[in-house]
Amino acid sequence: MKSEGTTLSENLPSALITIFGATGDLANRKLFPSIYHLYKKDRLNRKFAVVGTARRELSAEAFQNQVKASILEHVGPEEQLDEFISHFYYLPLDVSNVNEFSKLKTLIDQLDEHYQIGGNRIFYLAMAPQFFGTIGESIYQQNLKSQTGFNRLIIEKPFGHDFASAKELNDHIRQAFDEEEIYRIDHYLGKEMVQNIEVIRFANAIFEPLWNNRFISNIQVTSSETLGVEDRGRYYEGSGALRDMVQNHMLQMVALLAMEPPIRLNTNEIRSEKVKVLRALRPIAGEEIEKSFIRGQYDAGISKGNPVVAYREEDHVDPHSHTETFVAGKLMIDNFRWAGVPFYIRTGKRLTEKSTKIVIQFKDIPMNLYMKTEETLNPNLLVIHIQPEEGITLHLNAKKAGQFMDATPIKLNFSNKSTDGMNTPEAYEKLLFDCLRGDATNFAHWDEVALSWTYIDPIAKAWEETKEPSFPNYKAGSMGPAKADELLGKDGFHWWPVTDLDVENC
Ligand code: NAP
After folding, report:
1. DSSP state, 9?
2. Interval 236-281: pLDDT, tens
3. 47 CA distance to ligand 1 centroid (A)?
4. Which residues of 146-174 are buried (b: 16+ CB within 10 A; e: fewer)?
5. Ligand 1 site: residues with CB under 6 angstroms?
6. Which of 60, 328, 375, 495 is least surrounded by Cβ atoms within 10 Å, i.e. has the fewest?
7. Closest Cα partner for 258 from 174, 339, 366?
């Protein structure tokens, strides 16, 4: 609540943000621009400092110039950046050497006092995951946690490689930080329209009564990319689409779509409902894996009009690689609300369109009064456009203009950008803001991470043990292997084409 005579930022907690990996891609492309946006929108208490660390030797001035360059590139021409970047400091530090953390402690203690921060500390691990445990431990051992304010640890994905490694990592971190102090980033949870799933469901009388197996026939969640693996071949070879996308982002979207209304809109209540969904996922094992999950790997093809190479020809990729770049799956949620309703998910690289969309397909009405016998009415669809477009489309049937009582499909559209001309805040900006305020709702709790891995592990293991002989099995620029279509076809459904559903095509 804004009190009289104060600005918004004065009511927000002061904070000292330490970024490990401050010379890396994530810090430059996402974190610095996000911190700047918060600053510019008066959503960052002016009592703040940012300390960047990485191994390379940089002066504070060189680091400040790097921050400035990042903002000019990712935000645009901005004036008066000098005051902002004056809050940025740099310390060369190799995180594998615990003793070097004492220098960091000295610096952050000084800055804490200089900016009167009051001991509020955020440690952001924008580094490779093998360092997470070590950094957590060193922060603890060298007393970097403050005794006077809050201490929060932000961790990037991937959180483990399977349940066992995630648990080991979690146990490691928990020696230094309590669960309430750990903010596990799943940047999909920071996306405007992912957050909108809850509002659409729980603020509309017309949807919530229909949101169950009596009225919904199936739900489809697609997250497709046109890009290939780019320069991330080394990481991706050890991960694949199942671990990179399904374990976290896709399952989080399914949980939000399927959860019961929380009794209150607070972190614990929402998380507890999401956890119940993940617990109700029907485990997939043995022969069911092949029936319910399809993997793909892209071959050479044409992407957005340009010829592109096969995954196996990408840099840092094994020419005989069996890593999947595409996954389609059918998930069943064994509870009263969702019994019998398939949730289909698909995600992949080098697909036709860059698009994340959710399609809720409603059951057909009992009888078709308005079309010739051989024709069928289009089902009602609710489409939630997550990215790059943000909006909602409701597909209905209405009277075709003219003399006869024929039905024709129509679409009701809401587009975030087209109505307000507003640019929704970037996911990282929102998540940083949440963390500053101590709101962990849009971060993954350990229980969610553990349950997701438990669901994914048998599939990942089976795919490691049995290679897919048909790889590569889809052309770059297509929508994945034919088997992904059969997955729905055998249930009498089909994927709704992502391009046809675009807001501008409506
Ligand atoms: P990156 O570009 O490779 O950056 C790694 C950073 O770590 C650099 O600043 C590097 O600087 C520093 N570093 C490496 N070894 C170090 C050591 N021993 N001691 C101290 N610093 C060290 O990686 P990134 O793409 O930014 O990714 C960072 C994390 O975010 C990863 O966990 C990644 O999975 C996750 N992530 C990234 C993105 C993205 O868009 N980039 C998206 C989602 C998640 P020096 O070489 O100077 O030490």
Report:
1. G
2. 999 999 999 999 999 999 999 999 999 998 999 999 999 999 999 9
3. 27
4. beebbbbbbbbbbbbbebeebeebbeebe
5. 21-26, 29, 54-56, 93-96, 126-129, 156-157
6. 375
7. 339
